[in-house]
Design a protein that fits this description.
Elements lengths: L12 H4 L6 E3 L3 E4 L7 E8 L17 E9 L2 E8 L3 H9 L28 E5 L2 E5 L6 E3 L6 E4 L16 E2 L6 E6 L8 E7 L5 E8 L4 E2 L4 E2 L3 E11 L1 H5 L5 E3 L5 E7 L8 E5 L9 E5 L2 E9 L22 E9 L8 E6 L3 E6 L10 E6 L7 H4 L9 E6 L5 E4 L5 E3 L3 E4 L9 E9 L4 E8 L9 E4 L9 E6 L8
Antiparallel strand pairs: 1-5, 2-32, 3-4, 3-33, 4-5, 6-7, 7-8, 8-9, 10-11, 11-12, 12-13, 14-16, 15-16, 16-17, 16-18, 18-19, 20-21, 21-22, 22-23, 24-25, 25-26, 26-27, 28-30, 29-30, 30-31, 31-32
Length: about 500
């Protein structure tokens, strides 16, 4: 068999051409000095397809999950890379070809994979109770050994939950290390059912609460506060008839308002209250917190559909340059008779992949870190239009003062998501380091950069050169060598 990936945007170029390799390299080249405080492992996961798509083309989000681990020891950095051995990947390797069709549409798959977990394990990887959880929101996690990256297997928390979708964005309560998680379409494909979970740090399930959303929309991320969880429902919806007919799982609906479901963490789901905002796109949460009976939720947003691969029913997709992007604070007033989600602009500029200091997750906070875009920093005349998910700024925002610091790596470079690492467990909020992968478009190379989190405008304190190119990834996290508080 001759492998030939399609010559489409999701399979070509320095960001999206498949890498398809596993291996390890000891002692990567370092320019500058690795901060002594960095003792641990930075893990991240990427969709990286092993085989060409069965139907001739596919979207980026449908690639097989591959974990990359950067291990920091005494100023040295080693790297290890290994695929998540999902049921799906094992079946493909046995057949030596792709066996899956349209993204999240089981009716288009090869019959041989019927009944297997659809997980690619490609969206996020988080540490929990001594293991890593490789996550894809349409299915249960896969457990991975944090030392060897060997896949342990599908993870239902030792029989404590059923075979339901499980978020790629769990949260951790800094007060006790509890993991908070949820699933959408929990009652079956295209259902409106939500399920909320809370697990103790030792893995025991503490809560399982059911609720329903106003429509069967994507709920990619969610927010937590000390008393509440918030489910932001994206107006890109699933339709079972369309799926059964071989169509896309999701389609954008410009007529639908954005929904925010606020629910007590210690309730039974009957108290969930839905607030409505204007039609907009939001993917990831920066943080949320309470002020009395106000819940305030900070998320990057856009005023239209960013996911061009989930168009409207008639195929309409807005031009990216026509969209307005910002960092938005949504205020949800639990004492008001109004169900309007009130918006305030925190940063009037394109931004995504936000991260806060997880020691203040769900609490009042000051510092946010994210990626941004400034086309003035990009050589469009030389390189042409930027690819999907192109973000060429690293940003620090002080949400109290509105102050912003930024760093651009060059006119032919872009970032993958940055991860925050505190300088020490008792360091002030936001004081630490940012770790981020930088892709060099003209040389098709990748490096890992390390910056002081509160001085990003000064540029990297160290650069770690990779002897290979890494495909565009999604999310990653830091594992301290001797963890006393989970960082995820």
């Amino acid at each position: 068999m001759t492998l030939a990936f399609p010559a489409t945007a999701d399979f070509t170029g320095p960001l999206y051409a498949p890498s398809r390799f596993e291996g390890a390299v000891r002692d990567l080249e370092v320019t500058g000095t690795i901060p002594p405080a960095l003792s641990g492992t930075f893990v991240q996961v990427a969709p990286d397809p092993i085989y060409p798509p069965m139907l001739g083309d596919d979207i980026f989000f449908n690639g097989d999950g591959v974990v990359t681990a950067f291990r920091f020891v005494d100023g040295h950095v080693d790297v290890q890379r290994r695929y998540v051995e999902t049921d799906r990947l094992k079946a493909q390797r046995a057949a030596r070809r792709s066996l899956h069709g349209v993204y999240r549409n089981p009716y288009t798959n090869d019959p041989s994979v019927a009944g297997l977990s659809p997980s690619t394990g490609n969206t996020n990887i988080v540490p929990f109770n001594g293991i890593l959880l490789a996550l894809k929101e349409d299915s249960l996690p896969f457990a991975v050994d944090p030392e060897t990256l060997e896949t342990i297997g599908e993870w239902d928390f030792q029989g404590q939950i059923g075979n339901t979708p499980f978020t790629a964005h769990p949260k951790f309560d800094p007060a006790n290390g509890n993991m908070l998680a949820f699933g959408y379409e929990a009652g079956g494909t295209a259902s409106r059912d939500l399920v909320y979970y809370e697990f103790a740090a030792d893995g025991r399930k503490l809560r399982e609460i059911g609720a329903q959303s106003p429509y069967a929309g994507m709920v990619h991320d969610f927010a937590v506060t000390e008393r509440f969880v918030v489910f932001p429902v994206l107006p890109v919806t699933a339709d079972l008839d369309r799926i059964k007919a071989g169509g896309r799982h999701f389609a954008w609906h410009p007529e639908l308002g954005y929904q925010f479901g606020v629910m007590r963490r210690d309730g039974d789901g009957s108290d969930i209250r839905w607030f409505t905002g204007p039609n907009c796109f939001q993917a990831h949460v920066l943080n949320a917190f309470e002020v009395g009976e106000l819940v305030q939720l900070d998320m990057p947003s856009a005023d239209g559909n960013v996911f061009h691969f989930f168009p409207e029913a008639d195929g309409t997709v807005p031009a990216p340059e026509s969209l307005h992007f910002e960092l938005t604070r949504w205020t949800l007033d639990l004492e008001s008779d109004s169900n309007e989600a009130v918006r305030t602009t925190l940063l009037d500029a394109p931004c995504e992949f936000p991260r806060c200091d997880n020691r203040v997750a769900g609490r009042r906070y000051r510092h946010g870190f994210m990626l941004g875009l400034d086309m003035r920093e990009y050589a469009v005349e030389r390189l042409g239009p930027p690819p999907f998910q192109f973000l060429n700024l690293l940003l620090h925002i002080d949400v109290t003062t509105g102050g912003v610091k930024r760093w651009a790596p060059g006119d032919a470079e872009c970032f993958q998501e940055a991860t925050f690492v505190p300088r020490s467990e008792d360091a002030p909020e936001g004081d630490g380091y940012l770790l981020a992968l930088v892709n060099h478009l003209e040389t098709s190379t990748t490096e890992l950069v390390i910056l002081e989190s509160l001085a990003v405008d000064r540029g990297p304190v160290a650069r770690v050169k990779l002897p290979f190119r890494l495909r565009m990834s999604l999310h990653g996290n830091w594992l301290p060598t001797t963890p006393t508080t989970l960082v995820a």
